[in-house]
Design goal:
Layout lengths: L1 H38 L7 H6 L2 E26 L13 E25 L2 H9 L2 E2 L6 E3 L11 H5 L2 E9 L10 E4 L1 H8 L5 H6 L10 H10 L7
Parallel strand pairs: 4-5
Antiparallel strand pairs: 1-2, 2-5, 2-6, 3-6
Length: 230
Protein backbone atom coordinates (compact mmCIF):
# COMPACT_ATOMS: atom_id res chain seq x y z
CA UNK A 1 0.00 0.00 0.00
CA UNK A 2 2.82 2.36 0.95
CA UNK A 3 4.70 1.52 -2.26
CA UNK A 4 1.58 2.27 -4.33
CA UNK A 5 1.19 5.62 -2.56
CA UNK A 6 4.83 6.54 -3.23
CA UNK A 7 4.51 5.63 -6.90
CA UNK A 8 1.32 7.65 -7.17
CA UNK A 9 2.99 10.69 -5.58
CA UNK A 10 5.99 10.41 -7.90
CA UNK A 11 3.76 10.21 -10.95
CA UNK A 12 1.76 13.23 -9.78
CA UNK A 13 4.96 15.19 -9.18
CA UNK A 14 6.24 14.30 -12.64
CA UNK A 15 2.98 15.47 -14.23
CA UNK A 16 3.05 18.76 -12.33
CA UNK A 17 6.71 19.33 -13.21
CA UNK A 18 6.09 18.59 -16.88
CA UNK A 19 3.12 20.97 -16.97
CA UNK A 20 5.21 23.74 -15.38
CA UNK A 21 7.99 23.20 -17.90
CA UNK A 22 5.56 23.33 -20.82
CA UNK A 23 4.06 26.55 -19.46
CA UNK A 24 7.45 28.27 -19.42
CA UNK A 25 8.37 26.90 -22.84
CA UNK A 26 5.11 28.27 -24.18
CA UNK A 27 5.83 31.64 -22.62
CA UNK A 28 9.30 31.74 -24.18
CA UNK A 29 7.87 30.77 -27.55
CA UNK A 30 5.31 33.58 -27.24
CA UNK A 31 8.18 36.05 -26.76
CA UNK A 32 9.33 35.23 -30.29
CA UNK A 33 5.82 35.65 -31.69
CA UNK A 34 5.35 39.05 -29.99
CA UNK A 35 8.71 40.39 -31.17
CA UNK A 36 8.02 39.21 -34.71
CA UNK A 37 4.61 40.89 -34.76
CA UNK A 38 5.92 44.17 -33.36
CA UNK A 39 8.78 44.34 -35.85
CA UNK A 40 6.32 43.57 -38.63
CA UNK A 41 4.18 46.69 -38.21
CA UNK A 42 4.89 50.16 -39.68
CA UNK A 43 6.59 52.70 -37.39
CA UNK A 44 8.05 50.07 -35.13
CA UNK A 45 11.32 50.17 -33.15
CA UNK A 46 13.88 52.37 -34.97
CA UNK A 47 16.51 50.18 -36.61
CA UNK A 48 19.40 52.29 -35.32
CA UNK A 49 18.26 51.83 -31.71
CA UNK A 50 17.83 48.07 -32.11
CA UNK A 51 21.29 47.90 -33.69
CA UNK A 52 22.79 49.62 -30.64
CA UNK A 53 20.97 47.56 -28.01
CA UNK A 54 22.97 45.15 -25.87
CA UNK A 55 19.92 43.14 -24.80
CA UNK A 56 16.20 42.87 -25.51
CA UNK A 57 13.55 41.96 -22.94
CA UNK A 58 10.16 40.75 -24.17
CA UNK A 59 7.20 40.46 -21.78
CA UNK A 60 4.10 39.01 -23.50
CA UNK A 61 0.70 40.02 -22.11
CA UNK A 62 1.84 41.99 -19.11
CA UNK A 63 -1.21 42.61 -16.94
CA UNK A 64 -1.98 46.01 -15.47
CA UNK A 65 -5.19 46.23 -13.51
CA UNK A 66 -6.55 48.30 -10.72
CA UNK A 67 -9.46 49.38 -8.59
CA UNK A 68 -8.05 52.29 -6.64
CA UNK A 69 -4.45 51.04 -6.60
CA UNK A 70 -2.75 49.78 -9.74
CA UNK A 71 -0.29 47.00 -10.21
CA UNK A 72 1.65 45.49 -13.08
CA UNK A 73 3.00 41.99 -13.47
CA UNK A 74 4.42 40.00 -16.32
CA UNK A 75 6.81 37.22 -17.22
CA UNK A 76 9.06 36.92 -20.25
CA UNK A 77 12.67 36.61 -21.37
CA UNK A 78 15.85 38.60 -21.90
CA UNK A 79 18.22 37.91 -24.80
CA UNK A 80 21.64 39.57 -24.99
CA UNK A 81 24.35 39.70 -27.59
CA UNK A 82 27.15 37.26 -26.84
CA UNK A 83 30.75 38.09 -26.05
CA UNK A 84 32.45 40.06 -23.32
CA UNK A 85 31.67 43.35 -25.10
CA UNK A 86 28.21 42.22 -26.33
CA UNK A 87 29.48 42.32 -29.91
CA UNK A 88 28.62 38.77 -30.99
CA UNK A 89 25.45 37.06 -32.15
CA UNK A 90 22.39 36.88 -29.92
CA UNK A 91 22.75 34.28 -27.17
CA UNK A 92 20.54 32.05 -25.04
CA UNK A 93 17.50 33.62 -23.33
CA UNK A 94 17.18 34.03 -19.56
CA UNK A 95 13.69 34.22 -18.09
CA UNK A 96 12.66 37.48 -16.39
CA UNK A 97 9.79 38.81 -14.29
CA UNK A 98 8.30 42.27 -14.02
CA UNK A 99 6.36 43.45 -10.97
CA UNK A 100 5.29 46.85 -9.78
CA UNK A 101 2.53 49.27 -9.09
CA UNK A 102 1.21 52.75 -9.61
CA UNK A 103 -0.86 54.64 -7.09
CA UNK A 104 -3.83 56.90 -7.53
CA UNK A 105 -7.39 56.38 -8.62
CA UNK A 106 -7.56 53.88 -11.47
CA UNK A 107 -10.28 51.62 -12.76
CA UNK A 108 -9.89 49.09 -15.52
CA UNK A 109 -7.45 46.52 -16.83
CA UNK A 110 -5.31 45.74 -19.80
CA UNK A 111 -2.87 43.23 -21.23
CA UNK A 112 0.19 44.78 -22.82
CA UNK A 113 3.02 43.24 -24.80
CA UNK A 114 6.17 44.94 -23.60
CA UNK A 115 9.61 45.24 -25.21
CA UNK A 116 12.58 46.79 -23.41
CA UNK A 117 15.87 47.64 -25.11
CA UNK A 118 18.88 47.61 -22.79
CA UNK A 119 21.21 50.16 -24.31
CA UNK A 120 24.50 49.89 -22.38
CA UNK A 121 26.59 47.49 -20.27
CA UNK A 122 25.69 49.29 -17.06
CA UNK A 123 22.03 48.52 -17.64
CA UNK A 124 22.86 44.90 -18.46
CA UNK A 125 24.98 44.41 -15.33
CA UNK A 126 22.23 45.85 -13.16
CA UNK A 127 19.67 43.46 -14.65
CA UNK A 128 21.95 40.45 -14.33
CA UNK A 129 22.59 41.09 -10.66
CA UNK A 130 19.23 41.20 -8.92
CA UNK A 131 15.96 43.12 -8.85
CA UNK A 132 16.16 46.48 -10.61
CA UNK A 133 13.70 49.30 -9.94
CA UNK A 134 13.15 51.15 -13.18
CA UNK A 135 13.68 54.87 -12.89
CA UNK A 136 15.72 54.44 -9.71
CA UNK A 137 18.36 51.73 -10.21
CA UNK A 138 18.28 52.07 -13.99
CA UNK A 139 17.18 55.05 -16.08
CA UNK A 140 14.30 54.38 -18.45
CA UNK A 141 12.55 56.36 -21.18
CA UNK A 142 9.70 55.69 -23.57
CA UNK A 143 11.35 54.68 -26.81
CA UNK A 144 10.66 56.62 -30.00
CA UNK A 145 8.85 54.85 -32.81
CA UNK A 146 9.55 54.78 -36.53
CA UNK A 147 12.57 53.91 -38.57
CA UNK A 148 13.94 57.44 -38.73
CA UNK A 149 17.21 57.78 -36.79
CA UNK A 150 16.26 61.39 -36.01
CA UNK A 151 13.55 60.05 -33.72
CA UNK A 152 16.20 59.32 -31.08
CA UNK A 153 16.08 62.35 -28.74
CA UNK A 154 18.65 63.33 -26.13
CA UNK A 155 16.51 61.67 -23.45
CA UNK A 156 16.48 58.33 -25.22
CA UNK A 157 20.17 58.59 -26.05
CA UNK A 158 21.00 58.92 -22.34
CA UNK A 159 18.59 56.26 -21.06
CA UNK A 160 19.88 52.85 -20.06
CA UNK A 161 16.58 51.20 -21.00
CA UNK A 162 14.00 52.13 -23.65
CA UNK A 163 10.44 50.84 -23.38
CA UNK A 164 7.88 49.96 -26.04
CA UNK A 165 4.37 48.58 -25.57
CA UNK A 166 1.56 47.13 -27.61
CA UNK A 167 -1.67 47.53 -25.71
CA UNK A 168 -4.91 45.61 -25.65
CA UNK A 169 -7.86 46.23 -23.35
CA UNK A 170 -9.18 49.31 -21.60
CA UNK A 171 -6.15 51.24 -20.39
CA UNK A 172 -4.73 53.92 -22.71
CA UNK A 173 -0.99 53.89 -22.18
CA UNK A 174 1.49 52.45 -19.73
CA UNK A 175 3.85 53.70 -17.04
CA UNK A 176 6.92 51.75 -15.88
CA UNK A 177 8.23 54.17 -13.26
CA UNK A 178 8.74 52.26 -10.03
CA UNK A 179 8.27 48.89 -11.69
CA UNK A 180 10.81 46.19 -10.80
CA UNK A 181 12.47 43.77 -13.20
CA UNK A 182 14.27 40.69 -11.89
CA UNK A 183 15.71 37.40 -13.12
CA UNK A 184 13.14 34.60 -12.88
CA UNK A 185 15.58 31.84 -11.97
CA UNK A 186 12.84 29.32 -11.24
CA UNK A 187 11.43 29.75 -14.74
CA UNK A 188 14.93 29.48 -16.26
CA UNK A 189 15.45 26.21 -14.37
CA UNK A 190 12.26 24.84 -15.92
CA UNK A 191 13.44 25.89 -19.39
CA UNK A 192 16.96 24.46 -19.12
CA UNK A 193 16.31 21.55 -16.78
CA UNK A 194 18.96 22.70 -14.31
CA UNK A 195 19.70 25.61 -12.02
CA UNK A 196 21.27 28.51 -13.92
CA UNK A 197 21.52 32.16 -12.99
CA UNK A 198 20.70 34.84 -15.56
CA UNK A 199 24.38 35.82 -15.63
CA UNK A 200 25.44 32.23 -16.28
CA UNK A 201 23.00 31.99 -19.18
CA UNK A 202 23.87 35.35 -20.74
CA UNK A 203 27.62 35.47 -20.12
CA UNK A 204 28.47 31.81 -19.65
CA UNK A 205 29.69 29.39 -22.29
CA UNK A 206 28.10 26.20 -23.48
CA UNK A 207 24.47 27.25 -22.86
CA UNK A 208 22.54 26.37 -25.99
CA UNK A 209 19.43 28.16 -27.12
CA UNK A 210 16.45 25.94 -26.17
CA UNK A 211 14.00 24.98 -28.90
CA UNK A 212 11.30 27.23 -27.47
CA UNK A 213 13.64 30.24 -27.69
CA UNK A 214 14.93 29.69 -31.21
CA UNK A 215 12.25 31.80 -32.92
CA UNK A 216 13.14 34.86 -30.84
CA UNK A 217 16.91 34.46 -31.16
CA UNK A 218 16.78 33.70 -34.89
CA UNK A 219 14.62 36.78 -35.47
CA UNK A 220 17.06 39.06 -33.63
CA UNK A 221 20.00 37.53 -35.50
CA UNK A 222 18.17 38.28 -38.75
CA UNK A 223 17.05 41.85 -38.11
CA UNK A 224 20.07 43.04 -36.10
CA UNK A 225 23.07 40.74 -36.59
CA UNK A 226 25.71 43.24 -35.41
CA UNK A 227 26.05 45.63 -32.49
CA UNK A 228 26.69 49.00 -34.11
CA UNK A 229 27.32 50.83 -30.83
CA UNK A 230 30.89 49.56 -30.67
Amino acid sequence: MRRLLVVSLLVSLAVVTSAAQEKERGRLGECGVVMEEILGVPDNIPQDLLDRAECVIVIPSMVKAAIGVGYSRGRGAMVCRSGKDFDGGWGAPAMYALDGGSFGFQLGGQATDLVLLVMNPRGVNALLGSKVKLGANASIAAGPKGRDAAAATDVTMRAEILSYSRSRGLFAGISLEGTSVRPDNDASRKIYGRKLSARAIVQGEGVEVPESGRRLVALLDKVSPRNLSK
